[in-house]
Amino acid sequence: MPFPGGLWWLLCCRQGFTLLRRDYGDADREADGEAEEEASFELRAQGDQVGATGTGTGTGAAAGRGVVSLLVSEEMRSLIVEKGPGPVEEDPDALVKGWLQREVRGGVKTPWIRPRKYWFVLTPDSLDYYSSNEKGAKRLGSLVLTSLCSVLWPDKQTYKETGYWSVTVFGRKHCYRLYSEHLNEAVRWVCAVQKVIDSKAPVQTPTQLLMRDVEEHCGSPEVLEQIYRCNPILRYTSSPLYAPLLPFPYGSLDQSAPGPRSYTTLRDEAVKLFNSLQQLESQRDPVPLIQGILQTCLDLPPLVDEIYCQLVKQTTEPPAPGGPGDLHYWQLLTCMSCTFLPSPPVLRFLRFHLDRTESRFPASEMAKYACFIREALGKTRGRECVPSLEEILVLMRRQEMVCTVHCPGAAACSVAISSHTTAEEVARELVSRLGLSQSPNLFALYEQSRLREQPVGSSTLLADVLTSLAGEEREQDAPCRLCFKHYGFLDTDNVPRDSLEFALLFEQAHEMVLRGYVPTSEETLQTLAALRLQSLNSDFSTHAPFPRLEELFPPHVLHARLPAPRPDPPTPKCRGARLRAGLLAGGLWGHSLAKQRAERDQRLRGRLREEGASTMAAIVEKWKLLQGMGRPEAMAAYVALVREWPGFGSTLFDVDLRASPVGAGPQRLWLGIGAKAVSLYKPGEPEPLDSFCYGRISSFGASDSSTFRLSVEDRDLLFETSQVDEIAQLLTTYLASTGARRPPRPQEPAPGPPLDPDPAALPRGLCPVAGPWQRPPPTGSFGS
């Protein structure tokens, strides 16, 4: 039975009054509870600090008590629950005051309920809000402001969703989400709150105060023992950690690492990491957990010091020194020391802990780990990747890794490396081991995969290179390896034919031929393929193994013989025509087109097989003519044919030339960097379009991440390429090797430094000062 209209009106009014009463009452009770909880927590935290540091002895403990008492007195001024009768317009402590809207309970602003306004007052110690601006109004809440608080600027996304500009202030236990209808007002509040936060003295945790006390009394064993005995926060614990050992800002400002991993605030992540450390004790295979902790530290660098402090805590007076759980902590500390370097205060505290462990447990496994860690800390610098599972296993045993380097034309070399070995150190060792010390040419390590090949920077850690190659190999499902090759050719005419360097030169020349970087006739390419077969298998035999054609002959030559595919019909511009075309494509006409494309592709593949078979037959006929030629003679003849091209010895880069930043479309060219000159080639043409000796080059560098600038006398050449760093570094290396000298020419907007390289160092000044986007170019070569 439906209710009468009057009864409906009464029920609606009653429900509305109930909602209003519940809204006002809950808001008041919520604010009082927040203020009381915030105040009591801050007081309790400060009391814990006094108890933690007041148990020490000597001047260090007294100093700790003095610092904490100052912090307590500063915080006590803003922890008064009742601040008089209410806000007063003439309050001298009020910095900013005004009406703001606060988010309702539940954290979601409903569009059909207008948020309620409160009177907010910002003082030098806190952010308070009242029910109104009248004298005697009740204070509904207060957020104590310390140096760890943070504030978020208003963002457009929130304004688009709600119609309000948001101001978020993060405290220790709570955050205030405030809203204003005007952007200027929101910015004024953000700037004022941030200024108060910046004026606060840095908050120090009990662990930081005790670290300072330990450093001050490192020469007093009795005082140190009393500090450790009276402060459990410095010792092992089996209980969970409810707060980090070091101070972290409240809130989540720019703390999310890019990529698939998602993180919460730094404080929460620090507590989670301590839980992971405790799980490490009972792990039968700790390697995956260790790698996960290292990955978190790489994603969130501020947590590095926190993990070091947690590991020092858990390895101090454990219940079973030297047991499996304790050794897992030391193994993680070993991996940390080879991956991350802590800040100076934490580093000093860590070194003291290592010395204390070695003195208390000499000749133990813990002492051996402590000695290894101390040596590693002296060599560690930033890592780009976390250690791989294989590297972690090696570090847990305090051993060296074995790196396999492939040398074209020679057997692979195994080199023992550590987590701190650079590519230049390995390259120098290989130069010495392979007898290339007297060669005038330059050598380097290369990362080589199916899709790319690039030199490894001389200062790059080889452990990072191996880790990245292993990841790339898993993604591409193709082998990736590390190679040792020529980096720069200073003299290719006087290389002895019976030397290992000539074999390297032969293999590198063959790679250039297969990539199409040796412009010559197809007849010469077939002759080169026959010489390659003679060097591999000696005389012709039907039982000799035949490599694939793409390993002997440039594949692009065969593809060039095929007819160009017919372009698809253009898409109609008229809407009706597009609709009809779409209907036809989705019906029988579309199936017919797909069938035609499949038949066309099949015909092209058949034509390609025919061309390949005819080319292989021609190569075999030329191979039969080389009967009796030895392997050294075949290699020498191959290199002699390639050397007929004037650009042999240059490193070619695919670039797009732009005459000016705004102009016609770019022109695809080869940029050849040689020992004496820089040349421009049209792809496939043997003669250069232009060539510039190094004396004509006034400066060069990167205009942006994909544009290389080359200043030649009175003109600037701009090249679009993805190999800006490689081109710049190779030019720098050749200039350092040849000792080219030329005074600088003024450049705009910044002048280029002089081309006067120091023979003992690479002339980095030739490149413009790198911007924030540009990393230093790799330096993967060196002179012998």
List its traits.
single chain; 784 residues; alpha+beta; seven-stranded antiparallel beta sheet; nucleotide-binding; ATP-binding
From the helix content, strand content and strand pairing, which structural class follows?
alpha+beta
Give the end-to-end Cα distance, rounded to a whole number of Å.
102 Å
Strand order in the largest sheet: 4-3-2-1-7-6-5
Q: Enumerate the spans where pLDDT stays under 50 for 5 or more consecutive residues.
A: 6-82, 104-109, 740-784
- DSSP helix count? 22
Overview in brief:
The chain has 784 residues and is an alpha+beta fold. It is 44% helix and 14% strand.
Describe the structure.
- With about 775 residues, this protein is an alpha+beta fold.
- It contains 22 helices and 19 strands.
- Strands 4-3-2-1-7-6-5 form a seven-stranded antiparallel β-sheet, with helices on both faces.
- Strand 18 and strand 19 (about 715-720) form a beta hairpin.
- The protein is globular.
- The N and C termini lie far apart (about 100 Å).
- Mean pLDDT is about 80; it is low at about 5-80, about 105-110 and about 740-784.
- One of its GO terms (biological process) is signal transduction.
- It is found in: Cytoplasm.
What's the structural blueprint in terms of helices and strands?
Layout (H helix, E strand, L loop, with lengths): L4 H49 L4 H19 L19 E7 L14 E6 L3 E5 L8 E6 L5 E3 L3 H7 L2 E6 L4 E6 L2 H17 L6 H11 L4 H10 L35 H15 L6 H13 L3 H12 L9 H14 L6 H17 L4 H13 L11 H8 L4 E5 L7 E5 L5 H11 L8 E7 L4 E3 L6 H15 L4 E8 L11 H15 L7 H16 L17 H7 L13 H12 L1 H37 L6 H13 L7 E8 L8 E7 L3 E5 L8 E4 L3 E8 L2 E6 L2 E6 L3 H15 L46
Antiparallel strand pairs: 1-2, 1-7, 2-3, 3-4, 5-6, 6-7, 8-9, 10-11, 10-12, 13-14, 13-19, 14-15, 15-16, 17-18, 18-19
Helix pairs in contact: 1-2, 2-5, 5-11, 7-9, 10-12, 11-12, 16-21, 17-20, 17-21
